[in-house]
Task: structure prediction
Amino acid sequence: MIFQRVNRTDAECVFAIFQNVAGATFSLGAAGVWDTATQDGVRVKTPATATLSCLVGVAAQTIADSAFGLFQVYGYRASAVVVNHTSTAIAAGDILIPVDAVRYLARSAAADGKTGFIYAGEAVATGSATTLNAKVFIRCMAALLTFGLMAAGLL
Result:
């Protein structure tokens, strides 16, 4: 893990290195989840229905297939890929969740009881259901540590 040096003028950030096994390039700001087929704590892929709760964070760089790269697992991020739905706007503070078979984040329904690992840092107006970059706050470290311990057989 890479912990950013403390600086009064910069938001705190934590990064981890993972291997992209999605079969395609992860773009900057894309959401990734653990590869549960091979639980080694290193491999990540595109979210799927069974792995939506295995979110590791947001790609901090473009990562080619089978390559290793940085994912941001904690802190403020100025650009994560989100979708602006045609009927529901995103408000600052809304929970954002990964979506099946794609690499963007979407607003979680209000009062659905889900705990969030990523929160919207700004409002995103309704639109044409296209993806865009938005400010977010990421807190995937707890999930990262839990899944890592599971992969090591310690939980």
